[in-house]
Design goal:
heterodimer, A: alpha+beta, five-stranded antiparallel sheet, four-stranded antiparallel sheet, B: about 400 residues, 15 helices, 2 strands, extended
Chain lengths: ~400, ~400
Amino acid sequence: MIGRTLLNVTLALIVIFWVIPFVGLLITSLRDTKHANETGFWRGLTTNEIGYSLKTQGQEGVVEQDGKYVISGNLFDIRNEYDRQLSIENQDAEPFEVEGKILSFGASASNPTQAQIGESITVREGTLTVEENGDYRWIFDEPYTKNAKTIGVIIDHPPTIGLRNYFRAFSDSKIFDAIINSFIVTIPATIVPITIAAFAAYAFSWMSFPFRNIIFATVVALLIVPLQLAFIPVLSMYANIASWASALNEWLGNCQGTQCEVNAKTFSGLWIAHTAFGLPLAIYILRNYIMGLPKELLESARVDGASHLEIFVKLVAPLSLPALASFAIFQFLWVWNDLLVALILGPSDDLVLPIIIQKQIGTFKSELERLNANAFISMIVPLIVFLSLQKYFVRGLLTGSVKGG
Amino acid sequence: MANLVVSRGSGIGQLAINFVVVVILLPLFAVVSFALTSYISDGLIAVLPFNEVATGKLLFAVRAVLIALATSFLYFFLSDFFNRQLCGASSIGLQLQEKNQPWLFVGPALILILLFLVFPALQTLWLSFVNDIPVLDEGGEAILNDAGQTVTERGFVWFANYIHLITSEDFWFAMRNSVLWLMVVPTTCITMGMIIAVVSDRLSWGTVAKSLIFVPLAISFVGAAVIWRNIYAGGGTETYEVGMLNALLTPLGVKAQFWYEVNFWGNFFMMFIMIWIQTGFAMVLFSAALRGVSEETIEAARIDGANEFQIFFRVTLPQVYGTIIVVWTTLLILVLKVFDIPYALTANKPDKLLLATLMEQTRTAQREDEIAAAVAIILMLTIIPIMLFNVWRFRRESQS
């Protein structure tokens, strides 16, 4: 019995350990900038003491009362109204509200603990009092003729959770482009190698031709050749092709000077490279599967006079769907998540999601909530694919690795 | 027999013609269809009520995807069609057709593999042995051009690139870190994976636990870097820490910091991200292997009075040994190629370099393709022993 409890606790601890980072990502991506950058994600659902600088009204708000000059209002309302206007101007998503209980305040943003609620301080020759709910009164003996004043406050702020960062991400043209580009890169780079590899796998398993086994063994050996070996020559090959294309362009005479130059890095270049890099694994997985199809079935189809193409299209391809699905998931996840190949061969600097996220790890150091939201957006598609087709992924792992290679 | 000779002699000719026809027709198809669909796309953009730029991008995506797919499918139908037409329906023709067919099927795959993997690998090998050498005059002095720069020509330099590489400090950082990754990551993944597989096998909620631990396999290394940044990061206010590790450790008197940036030990924090991702892989394979362990041997051991630990180490483990080796080699190869995690988190600090990031740094920051090629070759050399071991195992398995 003690043994069982121990097992339960061990597994529970491991699972918690594995899940917490995900929870951290999700919560951070839903928070407000100030909260996400000043407190950890585990405080995302609790009230936090956060320092804000809030603005009073200036001379435009002065009212004469009993011979004194009074500015009064609500600090939260002023701030929230300002934020709302700003987001409308910038066509930005609706901002999070600043709310909560003010704990202390001070005459400047750097000194928010100068006075407690109920106390009053002298600011610009006026007496300032601030209530818990943000109401303030600023009383002068002489008429006040200056502008608004920023005062520092510590707020006991309730959690700010919402979809703002996601709205902002989708209205950010960089992220939108990257999502589209990720699809443009991934879909052909997943399906084209499947077609090519399936035909090759069929030939390797059911047709006889010279050097068949040696060629297949070589292809399998290539499974572990690092892609790093290919990058420099492939790049120079693309550069050569581009310069030929530019020369051809110029010769055809429908352009002038620099207009004739053809970009060396293109979507097609990226597709073909991903296709080639994925082929060894695809051929390996598919051949293992197609080899196992019932021999009698294929032979009787041959006797009936079906051509290899007909057999492939009508019999082998439908029967191999599970293996095709296995490889498709591998390739889809690999291409969608790939940073290196897109970085080296991609047609533009901010091409796909991993590149953007990688850059934002450096540039969004004080906008962690946006970094996390964008990272989550980059994971949605692979997670959906993975979770809905997990069965085939596991099957692919088992055939791909257990049998060898 | 005579037929065979004849058919072999002329078969290559037909094959060549076939390839040429297809190689000309397919790109033509792609280009023409792309040009034609641009009219449709322009028309649609004008008609559709959505944002023009976004619609244009979406339509470009759809066209590109469809044309790429159509081209790849078309190849097989075209080549089959031409194969029939060129060989004819005579008995020799049919034999020829039969002979050519496999090459038409494996052709595209082989050509792509040769063009993008085999030839580039050889070229990289060559590149790692050449570099620009100063041209010397009769007196042995370097010749200068009008701008006062040394005139160079490309030439074979033997191991000069490698020597240049191994005398640099960065290389030894990369080597040290790569070896550390190779030692730590696969072994930890295997240990954790085995523990999870064994434990979850005995508990009713084991399947749920396993699918949760499995999920990180779906996400990118860059995404994982962002996820773990929330745990490892420094920063915050006087009251609060942003990073979870800091929040846990500062009450114990540890100084708050960015944990993956710490000298030397930071490497281990990055390794852990990889372990977090890959343990699921080890776990799935071990789970499957454990299901294959014969119940009878375990029962027999239990009757003989062995305790659970003895059963696991003496009976179960030897039976899944093969799977452990598979997982271990797969992870070794994977770890050697790791690039994204250190690249995303520390952007090439020397202390955190790996062979893969060193290569990219040499290629882009220093613009020394030849030295980068030498790094790639060293990366390959590290893999070769693992590959040989794999081939040996593959052989032994296919024999038994």
